Amino acid sequence: MKKKLLRAGSYVLVAALATFITLAIVGSQGALEQTKLEQLESLILERFIGEADQTAMEDAAAEAMVDSLGDRWSYYIPASEYETHMEQMNNAYVGVGITISQTEDQEGFLVMEVNESGPAQEAGLQVEDLLIRVAGTDVREMTMEEVRNLVRGEEGTFVTMTVLRQGEVMEFSVERRTVQTVVASAQMLDNNIGLVTIENFDSRCAEETIAAIETLLEAGAEMLIFDVRNNPGGYASELVKVLDYLLPEGEVFHTVTYDGKEDIDYSDEECLELPMAVLVNENSYSAAEFFAAAMSEYEAAVIVGEQTSGKGYFQYTYQLSDGSAVGLSVGKYYTPEGENLQDVGITPDIHVMVDEETLQQIYYGYLEPEEDPQIQAAVKALLEQK
To answer: What is the C-alpha to C-alpha distance for residues 200 and 230, in angstroms, rounded to an integer?
Structure first.
């Protein structure tokens, strides 16, 4: 009898333990409906003995999910960086109109560019000034993002910027305004050759590129060089407008989305009939590569420089509920002849390598055209066509 009672008691105990474990796993009625990530987040927030930053956890998880795709073109944008991302795409921001770079010895931030007619130029800041304080705060040990956040602010307000200029400390009060970055610029070279530098294919690219071309034509340009080195690409719509202006009637761009939807863009019969060249390098991406490809396939331009990056996917930006976003590869680009450049890129007709120092000088605009080996190679190629 005692053994039977013990056995019965053990059954009750096992049943009780099983019920306890089941309740612990389920936790609540809705727990089984949660995803693994939601369960893990809840567990950490409820039971982790240390401090847990929910936003940081979710950002890290989201970034890891995008990284797991193995696609170097898809990316995650935290909510704190979304506004900056959109400013870049719009080629406009509220600020003072300078580009800075942190010095290696952390003595300050070197002013690399000052926007023409921008608030910083009006206040008196100059290229090669060394920024050391913003609004009275020493910035020498800050990150670029921290400095940018100090400089940025509400439009119409002023910020005090302290710089070192040839050893002299100088202070400027600069108004924060909406600053439009230059997308395309024109420069006349010797031999009636016009140089059009296209920074990106984002907002206003077509408008400014066509205006730059027409300015050069009015000044007597007989040949054109398009510089898309260090150009990260941008909107396909802007690219198509530029190609339509330059190329004869025919297909100029072709896209296929994840669901098989195809879209083909065409140019009309009006075109620009001049000897032309396109400069590219390893930092020419996406629309910049397809610009060069279309110009080459129509035999409208000679391609000069270095092998491009090989970006053949395009992304849509989807904003998420917390203000963050994901730029997700959702389709493929094709050249007029049906080539996808993914992991292939453009091979120049005339290959001209430059060293790292020269690359940096080109990137920051420090190199005059007559000192730029890639521009000079393009000039030579155009003169030989004449």
So the answer is: 9
The answer on pLDDT for 18 being more than 60 is: no
Is residue 123 within 8 Å of residue 174, measured between CB atoms?
Answer: yes
Comma-separated ranges of CATH 2.30.42.10 domains in the chain: 92-180
Please tell me what DSSP assigns to residue 182: P
Q: Would you place residue 30 in the very low, low, confident or very high pLDDT band (cuts 50, 70, 90)?
A: low
For domain 184-385, is the CATH number 3.90.226.10? yes
| b/e burial code for range 310-324 (CB count within 10 A of at least 16 → b) | bbbbbbeeeeeeeeb
Q: Domain 92-180 carries which CATH code?
A: 2.30.42.10
Q: What is the DSSP string of 288-353?
A: HHHHHHHHHHTT-EEEEES------EEEEEEE-TTS-EEEEEEEEEE-TTS---TTT----SEE--
Q: Measure the CA dihedral 27/29/30/32, to 10°.
A: 70
Mind listing the pLDDT tens digit for each residue in 339-373?
A: 999 999 999 999 999 999 999 999 988 899 999 99
Domain with CATH 3.90.226.10 in the chain: 184-385
Token digits of residue 17: 């333990």
- Identify the DSSP state of 255: E
Q: What is the DSSP letter of 72?
A: T
- Separation CA 234–CA 238 (nearest Å): 8
Tokens coding 357? 């120092």
